[in-house]
Prior knowledge:
By secondary structure, this protein is an alpha/beta fold. Helix content is 32%, strand content 19%. The strands form four sheets. The protein has an eight-stranded mixed beta sheet, sandwiched between helices. A four-stranded parallel beta sheet has the order 13-14-15-16, sandwiched between helices.
Amino acid sequence: MRHTTTGWLIALVISACTPEAHSQATKQDDTKEKTAKPKPAAKDARANIKILATGGTIAGGGEAGGYSYTSGQFEVGDLIKAVPGLDKKAMLSGEQIANIGSQDMNDDVWLKLAKRANELLADPSVDGIVVTHGTDTMEETAYFLDLVIKSRKPVVLVGSMRPATAISADGPANLYNGVAVASDPAARGRGVLVVINDSIHFARNVVKTNTTNVETFASPNRGAAGLVASGSVTWFEQMDKRHTTDSEFNVKTLTALPRVDIIYAHSNMDATLINAAIAAGAKGIVVAGVGDGNMSKSALDALADAAKNKILVVRSTRLGAGMVMRNAEVDDDKLGFVASGELNPGKSRVLAMLALTKTTDPAKVQQMFKQY
Ligand code: ASP
């Protein structure tokens, strides 16, 4: 179902939105008004927003009206065209970075996306970026970008829970609201944002909480960053953690990221998967611990050995909210572990990967977990 009309759709949207097209229209009007004094052409007041598409359900298609579908079937021009009035909100142009379900998101796409976003944001004519993305791993990509984007300009991720072909598809409204947020000067300096279902979330805090419901994204510990309805934006508090231009992490020279695995704790847990991760070359292990980041004695012993061998060990939690406290039931100081604080296993993995590009010292990484 790949669409071949995409090229001309983008061209149409771009040409209709360029300042040149706008000033051409102004010139024609001027020739009609022969007696009027010549006026300087008005500057286009719309924000210049780049859409970077990666796939996901928002670009998914299936049988008309149904909920079974394949991610990443429509391309960026189709998404833009599906939202009436979007070109009035902003000058838009799109690029296809990938076209995958976000369950297939990987380090190569992350690096490509982050590098391209940084390039575009360095262009003074660009006001902001919207990334279309599947919802399954959106919280990880958003946090990765939050840590490596080198700009205060808005970067907004949008997705949808229902494919374009479903009854009540939610993608068009989410894209409209995402463009509205990215066009809002007040979005500058807030870090990377996720816009979905009329809510705005900080990348660091947002998590997917429901498998299929459109009301799935939440920021359990801290609440949303704002609200957006029909393109009208309301902001709440600012983010107090380091991000974007205040972050020490940089992808510019990176061609790969260190391997960090997540291991899920449970009753009767042994060290088999920990040893397998180490054998596979993991430079870091995040444990999705029970409760406050706990795990069995045999898991603790295996990870204590791993930490002695300079493998970064982070204790997070398999629970949906709360924070993992340092030195509560586990002696992190003695074992050389890092406690994840508010970061869930997926986000802990993102920060651990970037931390390992700088240091393997758990004390320094613990500071990073407090600051980011
Ligand atoms: N599996 C899809 C994805 O993450 C789900 C979605 O986008 O909502 O790409």
